[in-house]
Design brief:
The structure holds 2 protein chains of 2 kinds. By secondary structure, chain A is of the alpha/beta class. Chain A has helices spanning 42-50, 72-76, 93-99, 102-105, 111-123, 139-152, 169-186, 197-203, 226-233; strands spanning 2-9, 19-26, 31-36, 57-62, 65-66, 79-82, 157-160, 189-193, 206-211, 214-219, 237-242, 245-250. The chains are: A alpha/beta, B mainly alpha.
Chain lengths: 255, 365
Amino acid sequence: MLEIQDLCFRYSRRAPMVLDGVNLTLRDGEIGILLGKNGSGKTTLFKNILGIRKPESGSIRFDGEDLLRLSRRERARRIAYVPQSIHFGALSVFDTVLMGRVSYFGYKAGKEDEAAVEAILRDMKLEDYAARNVEQLSGGERQKIAIARALAQEPRLLVFDEPTGNLDIANEQLIIDEARRAAREKGIAILTSLHDLNQALDLGDRFFFMKNGKITHAGGAEIVTEEVIRETFDAEVRIAQIEGKKIIINGGHKL
Amino acid sequence: MEPIPRGYHVLMRVQSDLTKNRRRNRTALILLTLAVIVLAFVCLFVGSSHMTVAECFAALAKKGSAAQVRIIWNIRIPRVLAAIIAGAGLSISGLIMQTDLNNPMASPSTLGVSNAAVFGANLSIIAFAGGFLDTGNHLSSYTVGANPYATSLMAFLFSTVSILLILGLCRLRAFQPGVVVLAGIAIGSVWTAATTILQFYATDVGLSAAVIWTFGDLGRATYRTDCIMAVVVLAGLLFFTLMSWQFNALLSGDAAARSMGVAVDRLRFVSMLLASVITAVCVSFLGIIGFVGIICPHVTKRLLGQDHRVSVPASALSGSVLLLLADTLSRSMGNGSALPVGAITSLLGAPFFLAIIFTRKGEHD
C-alpha cells in the first residue's frame, strides 16, 4: 500500500511549492489515476515517489516502509517507472527488458534473470521481438517493451506517466489492457496520469484530482462529476450514463 | 503425428536469433583482436631504417645486429604499445563521454580536455622552456628540457584541473548533460585563448617547439610512459566493463535509469573523471591525437549496437586498430620522418566515418 502524507516539494528554495501538502493512498492491485491540468504537479509527484526528486517535507511510505530511507536499488525492486517519452538506445528487446533487472544483479545478469525476462516476454506475447533492435520498433511496441522492462523489476507499484500520450487508438487500448492485467493478475498497484477522461474512467479504480500542487478530490468513480471537472480543468463537460457507465462529453456549454 | 505447438517454434527461433546476435558480437571482437595483433606486427616491420621482415624477427628474438635489436626493442615496440594503449584509451573515453552526456558530439576535444592539455604543455615549453627552470633559447633544451616529464606533467595537471572545474560547476546545478557540453566548450575556449596569448609572447624557437608538441607523435613513447598509460587505460576498461549495464540503463534517460536503481549522478561523475584522466594521460605523453574518440565509438555503435558489454571492448579494439594503422601509414608516407599521427587518424577516419553515417545499411538490425 502506498501512503503519501503532507508531501511538499519545490524546485528551489525561492520557487513556489509545486507539491503543496499532497495526501494519497493506494492499495495493492488498485489503479489510481491522477487527473489535472498540465503543470498541476502530476509528473513532479511521480518523480518524488520514484526518488528522482527529494521532497521538502512529508512522508512517502510503501507497505509501511519509509521510501525516503530505502537505497536506490531497494526502491527499484519495489517501484518501477514507465516514462512519458521512451527511448532506449540500440539494444535488443531481450537486453532492454533484462536491463530492468539491474537492481537485482548489479553487474552481470544471471540465469534466473534471463529466465525471468523470457517468462515476461512470453507472457506479453513479445517472444517474436526478442532479438530485434528496440530502436526500430513503433511507438506502441516500444511502450510495451517499456512495460515489460518495468515488470522485470518485479515491482509492487508501477508509476506510469501519461501512457497513451503518443499512441493511436489500437495501441492505446493495448497499453491500457496491459496495465489492467498487471494490476489484476499480479496485484501490482498502478499510479498513472491520463488526459482522456473516458479512458481514465474505463481504467481507474481511484481518482485523484490535482490542482496547484494539491489533491482536491480523491475517491472512486462517483467523485468524477461535472462540477469537479469544471473546477479542476476550467472546462465544461457533460456526463451521460450509458449502460451504467459514465461517458464524458466535451464542451458541455454547447449542448 | 502430433503437430508441434506454434509457441514452441517461436521460442526456438527466438533462442536462435539471440544466439546469432551473440555469435556476431563475439566474432566481431575476435576479428578486431586479430586485427590488432596483425597490425601490431606490420607496424613493427615498417620504418625508416628499412629492415627486412627476417631481420625484424631476428631482432625481436634479440639476435642480429645490436643496432637492429635496439631499433625494435627501444623504438618500435614502445611505439606499437603506445598505439594500442592510447588508441584504446582515447576511444573508450569518447564512448563513455557520449553515453554520459547523451551527446554524439561529446569527446575529449569538445569538452576542453585537449585544449587544457595544450595550454599546460605550451606554458611548460614557452614559459619554462620544457624543463622547469632552464630558460636557454635552444631548440634542444625545448625538446629534451631539464626534465622530460615536466611538459607532460603540466599538460596533465591543466587538463585535470579543467575537467574538475567543469564537473564541479555542473555539480552545483543538477548534473544536466547539456550543461556539461556547453561548460566544456566555454572553458575549452578560455584555454585556447590563453594559449594564443602565450604563443604571441613566445620566441620563434619556443613557438615552434610548442606547436610541434601539439602534433600527436607516438615516437615520444617509452616503456615507462606506456606503463603509466596502460595502468590508467586498464583501470578505465575494467570499470567501464563492470558498469556496462549501468551505462546501458543510462541510454534510457536519467529518470528511467534512476528508477531502475542506478546512481546516475555518481556514475556520471566518476566515469567522466576517469574518461578525462585517460585522455589527459594519453595526450600529455603523446600530444593531440584527434578524432579517435569520435570515429571509433560511432563506427562500433553503428555496426554492433549500443550494448556496452560489446561496445566498450569493441571501441577499445577499434581505437587500437585505427591508431596502429595511422601510425604505420604516417611512418611509411613521411619519407624518413613520421607525419603527425593525429593528422592521419583524421584523414583516414573521417571518410570512413562519413561513409558509415550516411549509409543506413551499416545500421544494427
